[in-house]
């Protein structure tokens, strides 16, 4: 029997693509420093191809686009509604899902719960490179899961994992985490960019060829310092990230990329003794209910993914002792806040040059859409003037640099959600008001920032 050829690796310059057999600090071709990265050198002989994964190569033939059967991929429900929602309506066979997030935020907990629900219907393999089977067993007991159908494997070598998976043939496989894996084809340490990339590439290949759903857990530090998961985002079908305040009870899972569904879809959970529980009505948790109207607070209607959400924005404007007053935005883009303050000065005639401005979105959710512009400015002004806005008032709308208030997508949808949660008055852009109105809601349409300020104060 011929011995397996020793795996080879090479080093490639990130900047110019030059290849080297050994690592060096500087690329001789283009002069870039620290640009050489280890890559696996797969020397496939032509005969090897057809033997690799039997039958698969033969099926790769060229088709006309019109002939490709457009049948919707069959989805499997994970049994956790909010997870299915961020995935775009369930798990898609053969897809690879990357779940990122800070350490301890609940990645392993969520996947273990999902596995327990899925294992009732199909074979599930949970591969852990971080925890021993005993630790996972302890967690399962804590979560009150029977763990009946879940197969466990504690292993960090990708080749070994795939060998086991070939035997087990799971429909769903979890790998926790990708940073702990290594492949025999590379010599660099587990967790390095090249190891992470090569390990993931092998797992992606397995998912596609065996029609298995693969969940990859990825670690990121606060400032996203770890390069690994960023590289991964291009290779996988779906990227989910945990966000939200670590200390608080709520955990928000957001889809950053999804080949099978909407991006920015949110799944909301609360972390308790029994692990993660779905929050079925998330608007309720992002509204901090005050008994009395307070200045600097306003409800906005945002739309993340396919679901409208009511969120409270809070602002505090206070005289600044600093030469450069502070502009702090939590859950919002700081540059956007600076821009809005400039528009407020230029088109509303209100300057805040000697004031610190703090803006916070309640509940730790991150708002990326421009519909937050109008409510943010109204909250800021409410705090500045110490004029509380009504508790049953909501607003949304984008503000342009020339002081115009622009419509945002899905206006009627947002208004209906607002009414459902007890909102009775709304300030909205002209283009967003439904012609026939919304029952139980007094809608004020505005075209410019000036009109909006007039309507609110
Ligand atoms: P974990 O899921 O291991 O996080 P990750 O895999 O993202 O690093 O742990 C989540 C945290 O949640 C951990 O600090 C303990 C806590 N926790 C609960 O509060 N309740 C529970 O039922 C469980 C299992 C964990
Ligand atoms: Mg974990």
UniProtKB/TrEMBL annotation:
- Could you name the Gene Ontology cellular component terms for this entry? cytosol
Q: What's the short name of a Pfam family annotated to this entry?
A: ChlI
Xref: CDD domains: RadA_SMS_N
Q: Name one GO biological process term.
A: recombinational repair
Q: Show the segment(s) annotated as Lon-protease-like.
A: 356-457
Q: Which GO terms describe its molecular function?
A: ATP binding; ATP-dependent DNA damage sensor activity; damaged DNA binding; hydrolase activity; zinc ion binding
Q: Where is this motif: RadA KNRFG motif?
A: 257-261
Residue ranges annotated for the RecA family profile domain, each copy included:
72-220
Superkingdom of origin = Bacteria
Note the SMART domains from the entry.
Answer: AAA (SM00382)
Keyword tags: ATP-binding, DNA damage, DNA repair, DNA-binding, Hydrolase, Metal-binding, Nucleotide-binding, Stress response, Zinc, Zinc-finger
Xref: PROSITE patterns: RECA_2
Q: Write out the residues that bind ATP.
A: 101-108
What does the entry note on its domains?
The middle region has homology to RecA with ATPase motifs including the RadA KNRFG motif, while the C-terminus is homologous to Lon protease.
Record-linked NCBIfam families? sms (TIGR00416)
The job of this chain, per UniProt, is described as: Plays a role in repairing double-strand DNA breaks, probably involving stabilizing or processing branched DNA or blocked replication forks. DNA-dependent ATPase involved in processing of recombination intermediates, plays a role in repairing DNA breaks. Stimulates the branch migration of RecA-mediated strand transfer reactions, allowing the 3' invading strand to extend heteroduplex DNA faster. Binds ssDNA in the presence of ADP but not other nucleotides, has ATPase activity that is stimulated by ssDNA and various branched DNA structures, but inhibited by SSB. Does not have RecA's homology-searching function.
Protein family (similarity comment): Belongs to the RecA family. RadA subfamily.
Name the chain's protein. Answer: DNA repair protein RadA
């Amino acid at each position: 029997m011929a011995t397996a050829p020793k795996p080879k690796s090479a080093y490639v310059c990130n900047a110019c693509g030059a290849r080297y057999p050994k690592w060096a600090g500087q690329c001789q071709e283009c002069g870039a420093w620290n640009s050489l990265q280890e890559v696996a050198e797969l020397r496939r002989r032509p005969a090897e191809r057809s033997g690799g994964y039997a039958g698969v190569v033969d099926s790769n033939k060229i088709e006309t686009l019109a002939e490709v059967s457009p049948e919707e991929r069959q989805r499997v429900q994970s049994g956790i509604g909010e997870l299915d929602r961020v995935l775009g309506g369930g798990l898609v066979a053969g897809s690879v899902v990357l779940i990122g997030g800070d350490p301890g935020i609940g990645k392993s907990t969520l996947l273990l719960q999902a596995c327990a629900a899925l294992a009732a219907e199909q074979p599930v393999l949970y591969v852990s490179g971080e925890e021993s089977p005993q630790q996972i067993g302890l967690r399962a007991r804590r979560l009150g899961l029977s763990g009946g159908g879940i197969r466990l494997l504690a292993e960090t070598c990708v080749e070994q994992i795939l060998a086991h998976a070939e035997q087990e043939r799971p429909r769903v496989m979890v790998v926790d985490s990708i940073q702990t894996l290594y492949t025999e084809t590379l010599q660099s340490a587990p967790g390095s960019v090249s190891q992470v990339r090569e390990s993931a590439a092998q797992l992606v290949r397995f998912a596609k060829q065996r029609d298995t759903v693969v969940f990859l857990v990825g670690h990121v530090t606060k400032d996203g310092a770890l390069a690994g998961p960023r590289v991964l985002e291009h290779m996988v079908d779906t990227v989910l990230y945990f966000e939200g305040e670590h200390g608080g009870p709520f955990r928000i899972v957001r889809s950053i990329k999804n080949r099978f569904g909407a991006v920015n879809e949110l799944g909301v959970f609360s972390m308790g003794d029994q692990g993660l529980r779905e929050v079925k009505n998330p608007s309720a948790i992002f509204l901090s209910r005050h008994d009395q109207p307070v200045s600097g607070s306003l409800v906005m209607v945002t739309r993340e993914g396919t679901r409208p959400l009511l969120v409270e924005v809070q602002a505090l404007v206070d005289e600044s002792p600093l030469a450069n007053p502070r502009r702090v935005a939590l859950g919002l883009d700081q540059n956007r806040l600076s821009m809005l303050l400039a528009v407020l000065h230029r088109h509303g005639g209100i300057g805040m040059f000697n004031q610190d401005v703090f803006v916070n979105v309640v509940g730790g959710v991150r708002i990326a859409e421009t519909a937050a512009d109008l409510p943010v400015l109204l909250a800021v002004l409410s705090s500045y003037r110490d004029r509380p806005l009504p508790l049953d008032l909501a607003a949304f709308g984008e503000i342009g640099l020339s002081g115009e208030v622009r419509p945002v997508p899905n206006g009627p949808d947002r208004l209906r959600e607002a009414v459902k949660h007890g909102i009775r008055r709304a300030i909205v852009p002209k283009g967003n008001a439904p012609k026939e109105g919304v029952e139980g809601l007094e809608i004020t349409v505005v075209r410019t920032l000036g009109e909006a300020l007039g309507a609110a104060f």
